[in-house]
Specification:
Elements (H helix, E strand, L loop, with lengths): L3 E5 L3 E8 L11 E9 L1 H11 L3 E9 L2 H12 L3 E8 L5 E7 L5 E6 L8 H6 L1 H5 L3 E5 L4 H13 L4 E4 L16 E2 L3 H8 L8 H14 L4 E5 L5 E4 L4 E4 L12 H14 L4 H15 L12 H10 L5
Parallel strand pairs: 1-4, 1-8, 2-6, 4-5, 8-9, 9-10, 10-11
Antiparallel strand pairs: 2-3, 6-7, 11-12, 12-13
Helix pairs in contact: 1-8, 8-9, 9-10
Length: about 325
């Protein structure tokens, strides 16, 4: 497969509590399970890429604490190149507090910690790897100056860029024209565009949201729709693929698995529809197991899942 993908992104220590239902504001509910996992959107995506057989290079930062040691060891164990992951002695490692209900839905509070102080010097140290990559993936869980610096470096080198704009924080207008792909979920997409799902039918809503990003210069838009699948539009080609019929256990890393699978397909030169189908399968398989990175599966398992669905990779 001879490719590499660079991921400039977040890495977290995930604390997950399982409960019969998600708590409301000011409410305490009894839980029935508790787990600790390695997570963070950037590191999850890097793991999915590595498990699919592509060299996965992670660029990010942890704190100088035992949690940082744990999450870096977790990345290495999955085959991710962590040579450009730095340790900030005076900061804490990013942390996500997650509550999961029996239907797989979840709530999440993310405290970024060291994820929000990635420096230009750290990115410069990885510049040759970024320039030589088949794609740069990044997300909004890191500090915005680092995000823009990495995007500009990749753009100058002609490296395709995929932004997962999560969480949906405001972005400078200069960001959008530099993006080859943007992949928000439906909540994030609506936050950027202001186009409410309640005011449109689903087909209109998807198209109008995608067109909003295209008008700002993004070349390709892929909106993930949870249990409704995924939608792609670039002003010419349009693809909608429904989700696979499965019963989710925990949806925590589903979007990250999708991003990793989508990037894998694109860097293999696959058509968009094939790449989205494969990405849907990655996301579907991940929600069958509790946790983030431990739920992400490799190429053989994804291929087997597609075969179970009567499809080929």
């Amino acid at each position: 497969m001879g490719k590499s993908i660079a991921v400039l992104g977040s890495i977290n220590y995930d604390i997950v509590a399982s409960a019969e239902r998600l708590p409301q504001r000011g409410e305490t509910v009894s839980g029935y399970g508790f787990d600790i996992f390695t997570g963070g959107k950037g590191s999850n995506q890097a793991v999915q890429i590595a498990l699919l057989g592509i060299k996965s290079i992670f660029i990010g930062q942890v704190g100088g604490d035992t949690q940082g040691e744990t999450v870096l060891a977790g990345l290495k164990s999955k085959g991710v190149d962590t040579g450009f992951a730095r340790i900030s002695a005076g900061e804490r490692t990013g942390c996500a507090l997650i509550t999961v209900a029996p239907d797989g839905s979840n709530t999440l509070v993310h405290t970024p910690g060291a994820n929000h102080s990635i420096s230009a010097a750290m990115i410069d140290a990885a510049a040759d790897c970024i320039r030589g990559a088949s794609m740069l993936i990044t997300q909004n869980e890191i500090n915005q100056d680092a995000l823009l610096y990495g995007i500009k470096l990749a753009r100058e080198a002609g490296v395709p860029i995929l932004l997962n704009p999560a969480p949906a924080v405001p972005l400078p207008e200069e960001t959008f024209p530099m993006l080859d792909y943007i992949a928000p979920n439906e909540t994030e997409s609506e936050a950027y565009t202001g186009i409410s799902q309640g005011s449109k039918n689903s087909e209109q809503w998807r198209r109008e949201n995608a067109e909003w990003f295209l008008r700002r210069g993004v070349k390709n838009v892929c909106i993930t729709l949870g249990n409704k699948g995924a939608y792609f539009f670039n002003g010419g080609g349009e693809v909608y693929l429904p989700a696979f019929p499965i019963k989710p256990v925990d949806t925590t890393a589903a979007g990250d698995s999708f991003i990793g699978g989508f990037a894998f397909g694109l860097t293999q030169g696959w058509p968009v529809e094939r790449s989205i189908r494969f990405a849907n399968a990655c996301g579907s398989v991940s929600v069958m197991t509790k946790g983030a990175q431990n739920s992400i599966q490799g190429y053989e398992r994804i291929a087997a899942f597609l075969k179970e669905q009567g499809m080929e990779v």
